[in-house]
């Protein structure tokens, strides 16, 4: 099976930043753009310059200081948008103007009050104007997945003839399903006569929780650019999450034979930086970057992890820059985890003592949810009623699999690698 290189188009600073509660100052955007560069994204969509002077200034700052990724800016199909985007991007050696226009009848009739023929002409002239400022022009057909395919393929062919190099077909409202989006891209790529001259791109929203699944499905139809965001932030329920897409292609390379330029060890630091800058955390169970993504509390799971991490981990936390797996001592924990934790904090317990400590830990956890290292020290000295000989320095793989008890990944701060 051949392996294909994907283009990772990060839109955290554009689609992500325009979500409620996620707006960033210019210096914060620059800081995040630097981290996205360390992460290895191919394209940084830096903003929508016509939206405000601050947005235009932020794009210009990023275009001035960031080297490596292509810097992109969004524009409607209006001359003033395109000129503003071009001005903002001008300091960047590699710059992309990203023009968009809705193609669904719903958007054309109800929102834009435009005919299909107006849409076609407007899209073509916008792409031609953008090409006067850069060779790298992307066209997005907003609401593509709800557009009439017979009209959509004509728009795509027309904008390719006008000079677009990337064709993005967004699932703007997160309406598609994985099978459907694959068929949609297959049909478009087959039908558009010049499809072999451009890169097709997917941009999925998570309104039904399908953004990552839909993006991956689009790849199997020949799409080679994925638009995504850190932590999956974005309009409404958000965009496809970069970390989920990248790790799916790494963990399941057998089914998804795609490579990227992403350094996965920077994923967690990037997620934590975004969280720190916006003050908006991800949910505890968020895939890859959530507090519980590598935490194990159930006794059977902890026992398995201590014997062989592969029993309950499909990827190692270090691979994505998470310091280490967390075995949380709680009421679901087993003896094995309690024993390992005791050894790690310096207590070697005989079997009989371990049984007594274990019962006290479970009692404590019933009241307090989690048992910290300090709690455990108190429990050991109270239960056994005498100082306990210290264990030799913890060195086994099993013990090192345990991180500071009760310390959540978020509490490690974002100092790791940022
Ligand atoms: Mn979007």
Q: What layout of secondary structure does this protein have?
A:
Elements: E1 4-5, E2 7-10, H1 12-16, H2 26-39, E3 43-47, H3 53-65, E4 70-76, H4 79-89, E5 95-102, H5 105-112, H6 116-131, E6 137-142, H7 149-162, E7 166-171, H8 178-191, E8 199-204, H9 211-219, E9 225-228, H10 242-251, E10 258-259, H11 267-278, E11 295-296, H12 299-307, E12 326-327, H13 335-344, H14 351-368, H15 373-384, H16 397-400
Parallel strand pairs: 1-10, 2-3, 2-9, 3-4, 4-5, 5-6, 6-7, 7-8, 8-9, 11-12
Helix pairs in contact: 2-3, 2-11, 3-4, 6-7, 8-9, 9-10, 12-13, 14-15
The site of manganese (II) ion has 7 residues, from loops.
Characteristic key phrases:
binds manganese (II) ion, 12 strands, eight-stranded parallel barrel, single chain, 418 residues, alpha/beta, TIM Barrel, 43% helix, 2 domains, two-stranded parallel ribbon
Helix content: 40-55%
CATH fold-level assignment of the largest domain = TIM Barrel
Share in β-strands: 5-15%
Uncertain spans, ≥5 residues at pLDDT below 50?
391-418
> How much is the average pLDDT?
90
**Count the helices. How many?**
16
Number of domain modules:
2
User: Helices and strands: which structural class?
Assistant: alpha/beta
Bound molecules: manganese (II) ion
Widest sheet, order of strands: 2-3-4-5-6-7-8-9
Shape: elongated
**Can you count the beta strands?**
12
**Largest beta-sheet details:** 8 strands, parallel, barrel
Name of the level-1 CATH class of the largest domain: Alpha Beta
